[in-house]
């Protein structure tokens, strides 16, 4: 008897079908560790805290018109966890080469879609390279799952992550599943009607507000479809499928907070402005004309409550197109423009619209999704993710995690992915660039720090007493 098949959600199936040789749909991460760790202890941690999520024991069965999750009857952890060592000096450059190569290599679809490589001989310690397919879950969920492998102290008791059994463990007939869906739909409809009547009683103008919201959603959908294509720059090129990965030395989170506070904005505003300045420096270094209308980046917007425990995986986020004003040279003016753009997006329904579109694409023919994906990806030059991480240092299998970093996949013809992650009082910044795009990832890392220093100096220079504190 073959293992039971669980239907894949439409949104997860949309991400599955985005996978191409040029852009494998993998979320890739690397953790550097202060000391070497025991492979036996790492295996035990993965078995008790990672494999408790059934998705990591399941492979994908794609029949063309539908996709399913199916338990892998031959699952073996040795097929997914490997131990290797770096050649030569085993320094950051060697590790970046390895991560670049792995980030360019697709996962094996005959097995559950994830891989981990423990790397010995890295700067006196070790590193863990992680690759997980996007159809399993969104980046924020996967970061939380991976962080559940860690502890707050070097020698804690290993505890299993509390999870609810994922759907589909009890065999049910097709008729029973259909009846269940009908009953669920009836319950949802009844609840919605009750809430609507209650809202009208409490607030007589509620129907007008509802109509206004529907109108706003429709307008955001039209705006997304009519948004102009990205300007032609060196950031938009036919892709080769070979990636180059780099990460910067971390910024001090306290410095970023101070900069944002001085400007009356958020940490996210300051970091987006810093990214904008880094791209300005890239254009200048390549003597490339800077687009006078800015460039756009696709930013994932989480739709899953962060205060809820991880119980099921899957993708629950939308995308928003953020305009980076690379044409604005003054750091303070650039910050104000970024802040204004972000405030406008926060009032929109663009994330919900794109999530709904992914749900629709995942239910339709592959050719329609491809065309829609090409259309949407032509309206952004890069993907940018900003994920809040833990405030305190963590330990993996007894070794301190010194620097975590991850890279999001790009879709369609987008060849640049940028990632920001806060961790233990620092801000990590990384980038992955397709080799066909003439951008040096290490240089962009330098531009990122230069850009933040310029913004911070301009922000703090206007504060009372700032010059005195600097002089002292």
From TrEMBL:
Where does the O-acyltransferase WSD1-like N-terminal domain start and stop, copy by copy? 8-270
The catalytic activity, as recorded, is: an acyl-CoA + a 1,2-diacyl-sn-glycerol = a triacyl-sn-glycerol + CoA
Q: Which GO terms describe its molecular function?
A: diacylglycerol O-acyltransferase activity
Identify the SUPFAM superfamilies for this entry: CoA-dependent acyltransferases
Q: O-acyltransferase WSD1 C-terminal domain spans which residues?
A: 314-455
Q: What pathway annotation does it carry? A: Lipid metabolism; Glycerolipid metabolism; triacylglycerol biosynthesis
Per its UniProt record, what InterPro entries does this chain match? Acyl_transf_WS/DGAT (IPR014292), CAT-like_dom_sf (IPR023213), O-acyltransferase_WSD1-like (IPR045034), O-acyltransferase_WSD1_C (IPR009721), O-acyltransferase_WSD1_N (IPR004255)
**Which Gene3D superfamilies does this one have?**
Chloramphenicol acetyltransferase-like domain (3.30.559.10)
User: Transmembrane region positions?
Assistant: none
In terms of superkingdom, the source organism counts as Bacteria
What are the record's GO terms for cellular component? plasma membrane
BP term (GO), one? triglyceride biosynthetic process
The enzyme class is transferase
Keyword entries, A-Z: Acyltransferase, Glycerol metabolism, Lipid biosynthesis, Lipid metabolism, Transferase
Give the EC number(s) listed in the UniProt record: 2.3.1.20
Describe the family membership recorded for this protein in Swiss-Prot or TrEMBL. Belongs to the long-chain O-acyltransferase family.
- Protein name as it appears in the record: diacylglycerol O-acyltransferase
Species in which this protein is naturally found: Marinobacter guineae
